[in-house]
Amino acid sequence: MTTPVQPLPKPTPVGPAPKGGKSPGAAPVDRSDDPDVRLMIRVRDGDPDAFTALVERFHADILGLADRTLRDRSTAEDVVQETFLRVYKAREGYQATAAVRTWIYRIAVNLCVSEIRTRKRRKTVLLGGLRREADDDAGAGLDPADDRAPAPSSRLEDEELAAVVRAALEDLPENQRVAMILSKFHDMPYKDIGDTLDMTPMAVKSLLARARATMRDRLPRQALDLE
Fold first, then answer.
1. What is the SS3 assignment for 116-141?
2. Is the pTM higher than 0.90?
3. What is the pLDDT of residues 35-62, one digit of tens each?
4. Which of 29, 55, 87, 213 is such that its CA lies 20 to 30 A from the CA of 134?
5. Domain extents in the chain
6. N- to C-terminal Cα separation, the chain
7. Is 74:10 a contact under the CB 8 Å cutoff?
8. Does 1-124 carry CATH code 1.10.1740.10?
9. If DSSP states are collapsed to H, E and C, what string results for 155-223?
């Protein structure tokens, strides 16, 4: 995966109000009692074992985020590697007022959005490939005369439903797609999603409402577990 070189994200909230309407001038919060923050402080101070522990702590979550956002495992793994590389490069500037989880997620989200935009520029269409794979797999290895085989109609319905949900998610605008994934699959509250996407909690709530409304218009009733 080729990702344009970008400035390293700053892990401290001090500075001008970010876009999304956050209030300026808020006093930094000391998070030094947070175990993740204590771990990141050890990383900042040069403890190699701490960085290994940090990667182990967040690897699965970041891989899941990237995989669901990009629908490409290999590219998702590249995003994970680049995310932790950027964390390591930025470690010396870390302050205990920055929430580690949302900082790492923000780096990964920025990389995912960059990849999505690169795909759009290249007019890469992955959905057609996913559909072709589903068509190729439908009925593969099944003997129509074998009573033990799952009912073809049931199996195809499940595959088709999953494909429809993926398609509806992929058709959302970038920020809505990421917000839905963070909310649905990573159980993030509005505040943490807002910190990750540089938005207020109210803006996140509105963003998710628009995303859910769009998906409800496109999905069958049995796929509407969006809350």
1. HHHHHHCCCCCHHHHHHHHHHHCCCC
2. no
3. 999 999 999 999 999 999 999 999 999 9
4. 213
5. 1-124
6. 33
7. no
8. yes
9. HHHHHHHHHHHHHHHHHCCHHHHHHHHHHHHHCCCHHHHHHHHCCCHHHHHHHHHHHHHHHHHHCCHHH
